[in-house]
Amino acid sequence: MTAGESQPEKGAVDRSEGFGERLLGVLLDQAHEMPPHLIAPLIVEVVGRVGGRDVSVLLQDYEQLMLVPLPGTRLTVGERAPIDGSPAGTAFRSGTSVEVPQAGGVRIYLPLLDGSDQVGVLALTLDTVDDDDRRLLHRMAGLAAHMLVTKNSYTDQFVQTRRREPMSVAAEVQWSLLPPLSMSTPQVAVAGILEPAYEVAGDSFDYALNDDILHVATVDAMGHGLDAATMATVAIGAYRHARRTDVGLSGIYAFMDRAIAGQFGLEHFVTAQMMRLNVATGHLQWVNAGHPAPLLIRNHQVVRQLHSPTTLPVGFGGDEPQLSEQTLQVGDRVLCFTDGLIEEHDAGGEQFGEEQLIAWVNRIEHTEEGVRAVVRSLSHTLIRERGGITSDDATLFLIEWRGGAADHLATLE
C-alpha cells in the first residue's frame, strides 16, 4: 500500500462487479433509452454470454390459449405453443422454469413475470445447466419481463404479436383500460378475465392495493359495441377518480352515478360492484349496484353466495347504497362475475344459470392451483359448456385472501 492510501475498514462490503451483476447491469443500463425493437437482440446477446442459444420470447395471446413467438432480430421464431400441454405452457402456468433434455443440450423455459403478472415465457438452450445458471437465468427473465412491459407502452409490436384474430374497436378500448390481469402478494392474490376477448365491449374491472386495502370494481355497461365501451370507460375513470380521493364505497357509488348520468343521461346505466378488502384482517366490504351475488369459496368449495341489498345501477340516481360486510378466513376466495356469464344459454337452449356455474367452480377449484389458473380454466370451460356462445360480455374476477405478511420483502437477507 502506498503512502496516502487508507486501510480498508475491517468487514468492508465488497462492491466490485461480478459476472452476474455485469450481465444484469447491461440489460438495465442499456434498456433506458433503447427502442423497443432492440430489446430482443439485447436479450439474445446477454443469454449468449452464459452460453445460451436458440432464444425465443413467447407472449400470451388475448384468449389465454396460446403462447405466440415474438418476431425480432436474432430471435428464434418457431411455432406457437399451447398453454395447456406444452413445456412452455407448463412454465407459464406454474410460474416456474421447466427443463427439457434434448440432443446436444437442455431446452429451458423460464416464466416472464412482471411482478406477479404473467407476460409469457423466455426459451433458450444450454449445453448443460447447473444451479448458478438457474439463478442467473431466473433473474435475467424477471428483468426481461419488466423491460417488455415497460417498452410495451411505446410500441404496438408486442400487442400485435398477442393477437390471433381481428379485434373490435370496443375491445381495443377495453383492453387498453385494464390493469394487469393478475397480482399476487403474500397477503392477497387476484386474477380477472374478460370474454369474448376480441369482441368485449361493456364489461371491465379494476383494482388497486393501497397499503393494507385492496380496492376492486367490476362494471357492466348497458348495450353493445363502442357505446357500451365508452360508458364502461367513463365508469372506470370515475371509479378511479373517486377511489383516489379516498372517499368511502357509498361516495364512490355516488360519484360514478353522477358521472354516468351527466354524460349519457338517465336512460343509460352501468351495473357495478365495488369492494374493499383489508388484507391485514380479512374484513371485506362491498356495494352491489345490480350485479349477481359473488360466491364465497372455502376449502375449494362454494359455501354460499354473498347476497346483499342492492341499489340501482350507476346512472339511475339510486339512494345511498347499504354497505355489506363479511369477515374472511385465511385461504377464502371470493368470485365476482357479471350476468353475461349466467344468463347465456347453453348448447341445449337452457339458461346456463348459477347452479351450473357453482358446480363448475367446485370441480375446477379441486383441479387447478392458484387464482390465475382457476379463472383461466373456468372461463374456457364455461365457454365450451355453453357451446362457444358468447352473445354478451362476461367478466370473472377472483380474490384470494392469504392472511400473510409482506414486511419481510422490504429487508435484505
TrEMBL record:
Its EC number is 3.1.3.16. It is an enzyme of class 3 (hydrolase). Residues 185-401 form the PPM-type phosphatase domain. GO terms for molecular function: protein serine/threonine phosphatase activity. SMART domains: PP2C_SIG. Coiled coil: none annotated. Keywords: Hydrolase. SUPFAM superfamilies: GAF domain-like (SSF55781), PP2C-like (SSF81606). The keyword Hydrolase applies. Gene3D superfamilies: 3.30.450.40, PPM-type phosphatase domain (3.60.40.10). PANTHER family: STAGE II SPORULATION PROTEIN E (PTHR43156:SF2), STAGE II SPORULATION PROTEIN E-RELATED (PTHR43156). This is PP2C family protein-serine/threonine phosphatase. It comes from Streptomyces roseoverticillatus.
